[in-house]
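Journal club prep, shared notes

We agreed each person brings one worked example of a sequence with its structure written out as tokens. Mine is GatB/YqeY domain-containing protein. I'm keeping it raw so we can talk through how to read the token line rather than staring at a rendered picture. Sequence first:
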Amino acid sequence: MLKKDEIAAMKARDKAKVSILRLVSADIKAFEVNERKDISDEGIVKIIEKNIKQTKEALEYAKQLNSEEKIAEGNFAIEVLTKYLPEQLSEEEVMGMLKEIISNGSYTAKDMGKIMKEIMPKVNGKFDRSKVNPMVKKILG
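Then the structure, token by token:
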């Protein structure tokens, strides 16, 4: 799908979109060359998440510099890349999953690592990983 969209963007002469998709394609190809194996769908999601994270970091810097052009480019890149992620979970859904995990395992604040180990595979690629830890702390209170 990524490759098809890249070709469609080239035909439409959408240079910005082509640039973003080529960057992700290059990261995927680099992974396959370095690991000497085909990348899984999960691996592609991780690469896309990494690109989104890097773009968000660059976006924060652009906001500090008040660079409207870079802010617009960053927002566009995030918008394009987000389409390739699995359907995202809401904060309420993740909170429900966390409450269930914590109540079933009768975890305490000391078991933060165990809770994170249990929840992360369930939300990987479907929710912003940086928001999970504060949510667990909020529940454990």
